[in-house]
Amino acid sequence: MKYDWLLLSQHGIEIFPFDDTMLLSYVLDAGRGKHNMDALAEKWLDHQCISYKELTGTGKNKITFDQVPLEEATKYAAEDADITYRLWQILKPRLTAEKLTAIYEKLERPLVAVLAKMEQRGIEVDQQILSRLSGELAQSAARLEDEIFELSGEKFNIASPKQMGDILFGKLGLPGAKKTKTGAWSTAAGTLEDLAAEGHDLPRLLIEWRQLTKLKSTYTDALPTFINPNTKRIHTSYSMASTTTGRLSSSDPNLQNIPIRTTEGRKIRTAFVASKDCKLVSADYSQIELRVLAHVANIPELKQAFEDGLDIHAKTASEMFGVPIEGMDPMIRRQAKAINFGIIYGISAFGLAAQLNISRSEASDYMKLYFERFPRIKEYMEETKSTCRDKGYVENIFGRQVHYPEINSKNHQVKAFNERAAINAPIQGSAADIIRRAMINMEDILEKNNLNAEMLLQVHDELIFEIPDSEVEKSIPIIKQVMIDAPMPALSLSVPIQVDAQAAQNWDEAH
């Protein structure tokens, strides 16, 4: 519906009320297949829709829709309307029957117009900064290439996994060689990371080279191509029904994957700037998923730590290793942080060992110690898996359901993956729905306060606004309050919610 909303609004047409069959399906059947019209027509109506490609062709002979013969275009358009209506007749009554009306009415339908407005506004990008960064990344990659060729003893195409594998395992005979189905050596990120962790310089440089060239091709070179010639801004597109948990995803370009753990990644954010006489404000939920975990699993130690405003990772380390929070070794805090976040994503001892660069038995001991100190987390995990095995789905704090039909699979790997996902879904999904609620409430509240602050982007737990300089001071406390109050009145979290917000000229400085 968002696509149609945007298209019609360009011609001054506003639509309301409306229903969206994709979102109806998403609320009812997240995790049980795709939600686009063609897939739903096959599933519910046993009907194969005319494909767009059939009409327009592909490759060199592809035509635009205005060139499709009128009779064929009419059939296609009429089928589109007819099928959508038939799907609506099947899906809409299920909302009431399955007690999911509130999820659809409060979290999905109102968000369509909110996201459409954000996409319409777009965000300004400084092309000169991107151009400079492209040059810097090219120079750094060239320097790395020289080092790589020196260590390899020859020149080769670093972008070719086959040639890279031949050098690492064929020529240099490094350990841990594995072959892919095609018979070539595997140079997957995990393989190179393992070798780098063992102290091998060449794999470490290859990882760095890959990261730099990916940043260059995906962001500094590609972002300028997304700048709209009329608005001079980038307009990303949000998808509401592409993740199972309720998290939004963004594409054309994807602004949710800009790496911020590296200096180079953060530099890319400096290119996203505020318009003249405005500031960008980044408002970010602080550790929202851990707060949700503390609430959902009812973990007294974590709840108290949040209540006291303590550094949660330092507190976890203190509980686990019996060391005082004051003057704590940053390394110990980092280990606790990795476990805290790892637990949310159902990490294994193997995964934790790789992350902390320790042995698997050591990682296993850490996890055992963690569950001894926080027994409620282990109980929550077991309860969630058991519920999901019985019902086939899990629920988040607002009642959104995510289905895992393969949780009882005979295949151990498939079953383990589904179990990990089922543990994570209520936590990630609750955090995602909290920010959805904030976004839905935000527009009206800013308007009521006569503020011209505009919401531009959502990146997981963060909202980006563009605000006139004269209104920044008044806007920030209101934005923070809307985000803090987001779960209300549906429920009150038993853990305080914290939002950090600041204003700056570019996205990096505001974060």
Outline:
The protein is built from 21 helices and 11 strands. It is of the alpha+beta class and 511 residues long. It has helices at residues 2-9, 21-29, 37-45, 52-56, 70-97, 101-121, 127-152, 161-171, 189-197, 201-220, 263-269, 288-296, 300-307, 312-321, 330-344, 349-356, 360-373, 375-391, 412-448, 472-484, 507-510, and strands at 123-125, 233-234, 237-239, 249-251, 272-273, 278-285, 393-395, 401-403, 454-459, 462-468, 499-504.
Structural class: alpha+beta
Radius of gyration: 25 Å
Secondary structure tally, helices: 21
**Number of separate strands:** 11
Which strands sit side by side, in order, in the main sheet? 9-10-6-11
Helix content: 55-70%
Low-confidence stretches: none
Give the mean pLDDT: 93
Sheet having the most strands: 4 strands, antiparallel
Distance between the termini: 32 Å
Shape: globular
The fraction of residues in strands falls at 5-15%
Structure description:
With 511 residues, this protein is of the alpha+beta class. The chain has helices at residues 2-9, 21-29, 37-45, 52-56, 70-97, 101-121, 127-152, 161-171, 189-197, 201-220, 263-269, 288-296, 300-307, 312-321, 330-344, 349-356, 360-373, 375-391, 412-448, 472-484, 507-510; strands spanning 123-125, 233-234, 237-239, 249-251, 272-273, 278-285, 393-395, 401-403, 454-459, 462-468, 499-504. The longest helix is centred in the last third of the chain and has 37 residues, at 412-448. The protein has 21 helices and 11 strands. A hairpin with a 5-residue loop joins strand 7 (393-395) and strand 8 (401-403). The strands form 4 sheets. The protein has a 4-stranded antiparallel sheet with strand order 9-10-6-11. A 3-stranded antiparallel sheet has the order 2-1-5, with no helix packed on it. Strands 3-4 form a two-stranded antiparallel sheet. The mean pLDDT is 93.
